[in-house]
Specification:
Structural class: alpha+beta
Largest sheet: 6 strands, mixed
Helix content: 25-40%
Shape: elongated
Distance between the termini: 59 Å
Radius of gyration: 33 Å
Strand content: 15-25%
Bound molecules: adenosine-5'-diphosphate, magnesium ion
């Protein structure tokens, strides 16, 4: 990899042709699309800033179909033309979905014997066509937000999908004009999102509890490849069931016997139940307001422990497939290395608690459970499209030279060491050097030598707005992040105010491998010189610090707390140190600092007393005994 260097604003050279690749989570309830942007997988948002696209399509007699939220709004009023949960039908034969059909409001076209079609205002439509509409909408979203044509996609499917279901999904993608590089199992995508494929081996359980379905998969990672050992689940179990149980409790609470409960009121109760459930992820209790069929309003309170009792049967029911999948895989709970949590319903605190207890293993919950599958798919797509080609990987998978910042004395403090594998993020805290310092200059360097002058300067920037503090009290956290493309960004953040500045450092191809090698060789040859230089610089900084501190103390209290003789002897010691700091070696400077410290001990003690006295003035000693 070339050295990292700052490019001029607006003139950054494109390091390599970046082909647009996306990952798509084509879900039963919701779908998402994600991509890897400068090394980070991100979910793409629609024009309203929403990440989810409801997997719903409404066909109309006159006009294009409506997709997503628009269609979702029509589910109640135009149910026959508004197709939801197409994923439950995709790749299935008419005979396969007989029992499913009983739960659906649609009219099926029984002429089309093999592939079931729903009769809509715009003609008969199969699940493949419905899915293609959803994929087309996602594709448009990506092209708008990425500004170009997509080169390839990875689409996720449930691990249990059979060949026909997978083929049908691919057909839908083809209809949508997408180039499918791979279909990826949803649980594998989730594992990839957590970087589990980067490990050498391991066995993971992927627990996916959504709105209407529950899936659990046991994956074994072996030499970078995930093998599905077992899958189990319940195609009619999820957050919707929790909502129903909570809604039933609500009806009991308000005395539903006296109510003329209509379907409109039931829907309202379900919506309120879902909102209450989601609120209880954050809060211990929540208010539910209902307008009753008789026109009056009613407020009830639901607390978390009551909800936990209500939804316990749903959570407990998910543990059966967990047990079965372990048995099918021929494993014990002890064999599982970790559990990856997927799906919106895993936000429910008791779900996390019970799953953790069941497996007695740690959970992976850091990635948004709605997005984790799409994110993993995007990461896979980015690799498959060749944005991280074998060449790139060879060059970019480790940091060739250390990265650091300049500290006092013209030295370099390494933040990311050479050979760290990327992507990598490291942070370190630095402090202020002077009393009342309100800005800090950050100089980013690359190289393995100790002195700034021997390393390569990559960037400089300044952090302003540090509140004035005593030297050494400021806490500035400097973070270095190198993404998978080898791009460095540096940020600095002051802890008390949160002020932050950041800068992207772009790769430069100005230096050859030979030059890098030369720099490395130099750093080894000069290692001994460097140590001396570093020690000297350190003592010089120490000396400056001591002088600065004494000067400001003398200015403040010198006349109050010292007589003339004491004062001039201190000033003489200080001048001596000043002269040595410029000309002496590390050892002699160190000695002079320690001499000056001894000389100023009495002064320091008097200042301490004085400041305690001023704090105590007007107070009783007992106030301080706490
Ligand atoms: P699907 O996999 O079926 O598409 P999702 O993974 O999107 O479903 O999950 C939807 C479910 O997640 C809904 O039941 C919703 O109520 C639930 N959910 C979303 N956010 C929360 C939350 N904060 N607390 C509890 N449940 C939540
Ligand atoms: Mg899902």
């Amino acid at each position: 990899m070339a050295l990292l260097q700052i490019s001029e604003p607006g003139k950054s050279t494109v390091p390599h042709e970046h082909r647009l690749a996306v990952g798509i989570d084509l879900g039963t309830t919701n779908s998402l699309i994600a991509t890897v942007r400068s090394g980070e997988a991100v979910v793409l948002l629609d024009e309203q800033g929403r990440s989810l696209l409801p997997s719903v399509v409404r066909y109309r007699a006159d006009g294009d179909p409506q997709i997503g939220y628009l269609a979702l709004n029509a589910v109640v009023n135009d149910p026959m033309n508004t197709i939801a949960s197409a994923k439950r039908m995709i790749g299935r034969k008419t005979a396969d979905i007989k029992s499913l059909r009983d739960h659906m409001p649609y009219n099926f076209d029984d002429e089309s014997a093999n592939v079931p079609r729903i009769i809509t205002a715009d003609g008969p439509r199969s699940a493949i066509e419905v899915s293609a509409e959803i994929l087309t909408a996602l594709k448009k979203r990506a092209e708008i937000s990425l500004g170009g044509d997509l080169s390839g996609v990875v689409i996720t499917v449930p691990a249990y999908f059979d060949d026909a279901q997978r083929q049908a999904t691919k057909d839908a993608a083809r209809l949508a004009g997408l180039n499918v590089m791979r279909l990826l199992n949803e649980p594998t995508a989730a594992a990839v999102a957590y970087g589990l494929d980067q490990g050498s081996e391991g066995v993971y359980a992927i627990y996916d509890l959504g709105g209407g379905t529950f899936d659990v998969s046991i994956l074994r990672l072996n030499k970078g490849i995930f093998e599905v050992l077992a899958t189990a689940g319940d195609s009619a179990l999820g957050g919707d069931d929790m909502d129903r149980l909570i809604a039933e409790w609500m009806l009991d609470e308000i005395g539903n016997d006296d109510l003329n409960v209509d379907s409109h009121f039931l829907r309202q109760a379900l919506v309120a139940a879902r909102a209450a459930k989601e609120a209880l992820t954050e809060d211990d209790s929540t208010d539910i307001e209902l307008s009753l069929p008789d026109g009056s309003n009613k407020k009830i309170v639901l607390d978390r422990s009551t909800m936990n009792e209500l939804i316990a049967p749903v959570i407990d029911k998910t543990l059966l497939p967990c047990r079965r999948s372990l048995r099918d895989a021929g494993l014990d709970k002890e064999d599982i290395d970790g559990i990856v949590m997927v799906g919106g319903s895993t936000r429910v605190l008791d779900v996390k608690q019970k799953v953790e207890k069941f497996f007695s293993k740690g959970l992976y919950t850091g990635v948004d459970p709605d997005q984790v599958v799409a994110i993993g798919a995007a990461i896979q797509a980015n690799i498959l499209i060749g944005n991280r080609s074998a060449d790139d990987m060879l060059l970019l998978d480790v940091i060739p030279l250390s990265l650091g910042i300049e500290i006092m004395g013209g030295m370099v403090e390494k933040i990311i060491p050479r050979n760290a594998t990327i992507p990598v993020t490291r942070a370190q805290e630095f402090t202020t050097y002077k009393d009342g310092q309100t800005a800090m200059s950050i100089h980013v360097l690359q190289g393995d030598r100790e002195l700034v002058s021997d390393c390569r300067s990559l960037a400089r920037f300044e952090l302003h707005g540090i509140p004035p503090m005593v030297a050494g009290n400021g806490r500035i956290k400097v973070s270095f992040q190198v993404d998978a493309d080898g791009l460095l960004s540096v940020s600095a953040r002051e802890a008390t105010t949160g002020v932050e500045t950041q800068i992207d450092v772009k790769p430069s191809y100005g230096l050859t491998d030979t030059e890098i090698e030369q720099m490395l060789r130099d750093s080894i040859t000069h290692a001994r010189d460097d140590v001396h230089a570093r020690q000297l610089a350190e003592q010089q900084v120490e000396a400056d610090r001591a002088i600065l501190a004494l000067e400001s103390a003398l200015e403040e209290d010198g006349h109050k707390l010292l007589d003339n003789d004491e004062r001039s002897s201190l000033i003489a010691g200080m001048e001596e140190l000043k002269a040595l700091a410029d000309t002496g070696d590390a050892e002699s400077i160190k000695q002079a600092i320690s001499d000056l410290n001894q000389l100023s001990e009495v002064f320091a003690a008097r200042r301490m007393d004085a400041s305690i006295r001023s704090v105590m003035a007007g107070h009783n000693i007992n106030e301080f005994s706490e």
